[in-house]
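Work Package 4 report. The design task specified in the project plan requires that, given a folded chain encoded as structure tokens, an amino acid be chosen for each position. We show below one input record used in the internal validation round.
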């Protein structure tokens, strides 16, 4: 009985520290992985199936509705990955090895990324790990710049430009978010609120060209991105503690593995349609 209570207490701390009302870093990792998987089921499978000529109008409506729910849940994922990257940058024992691992998995994930999202394959845009890698290099440059505001701004602009030029997932917006989470790390409330506002402003600029007016862009963001609030709330409530010491590379391998699996699932479904 005592062993069972101890195990339950450990699980509670892993999920949620009831004494302080905070999440562990492990919980943020798990949430990021699950919400990303949910998001990619919508983006990689449903959004392809819904426009097939063989799909009935009723089935199309259902697919659109389900996809909207999945993509809303999926919005939670990316800011958590950015926050975890900042934590990794601050606490890793070897930044060169950390950067090398990111770059390796970025290249490893590119085929599964395109395999899931594009049919036929299209390598014109790069997966999100390239965005994280560019963000890491940007943080490294900012650290070297120390308190020189001009150099910090210059390095940030260069990182954002690299994300845009390489057409990485989340592009310059992702790099900007990573920088914001890093620079404001000493104040969790400021870190989460300012980063949230900055990211929303960045998305307003990014998606303004897709709509006829600013009001339409804001309406789009309010109806399709509002779950981002949960991401930044979890970031604010993160205590930075890690309870799972092993399986670090499982976190990395999950990204290309689930993309490849979803790509296979999609092509299997298409055989029967």
């Amino acid at each position: 009985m005592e062993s069972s209570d101890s195990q339950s207490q450990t699980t509670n701390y892993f999920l949620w520290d009831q004494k302080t009302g905070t999440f562990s870093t492990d919980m943020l990792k798990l949430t990021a992985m699950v919400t990303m998987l949910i998001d990619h089921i919508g983006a990689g499978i449903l959004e392809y199936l819904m426009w097939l000529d063989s799909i009935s109008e009723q089935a199309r409506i259902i697919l659109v509705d389900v996809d909207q729910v999945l993509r809303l849940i999926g919005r939670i994922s990316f800011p958590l990955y950015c926050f975890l990257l900042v934590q990794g940058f601050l606490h890793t024992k070897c930044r060169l090895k950390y950067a090398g691992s990111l770059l390796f998995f970025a290249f490893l994930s590119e085929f599964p990324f395109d395999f899931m999202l594009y049919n036929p394959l299209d390598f014109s845009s790069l997966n999100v790990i390239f965005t994280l890698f560019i963000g890491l290099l940007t943080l490294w440059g900012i650290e070297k710049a120390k308190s020189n505001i001009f150099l910090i701004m210059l390095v940030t602009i260069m990182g954002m430009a690299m994300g845009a030029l390489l057409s990485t997932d989340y592009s310059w917006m992702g790099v900007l978010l990573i920088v914001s989470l890093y620079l404001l790390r000493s104040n969790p409330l400021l870190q989460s609120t300012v980063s949230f506002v900055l990211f929303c402003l960045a998305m307003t600029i990014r998606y303004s060209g897709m709509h006829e007016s600013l009001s339409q862009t804001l309406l789009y963001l309010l109806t399709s991105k509002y779950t981002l609030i949960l991401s930044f709330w979890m970031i604010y409530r993160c205590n930075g503690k890690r309870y799972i010491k092993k399986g670090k590379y499982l976190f990395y391998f999950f990204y290309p593995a689930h993309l490849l699996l979803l790509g296979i699932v999609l092509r299997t479904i298409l055989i029967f349609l």
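The CA atoms of residues 58 and 64 lie 10 Å apart. Validation will be extended to a larger panel in the next phase.
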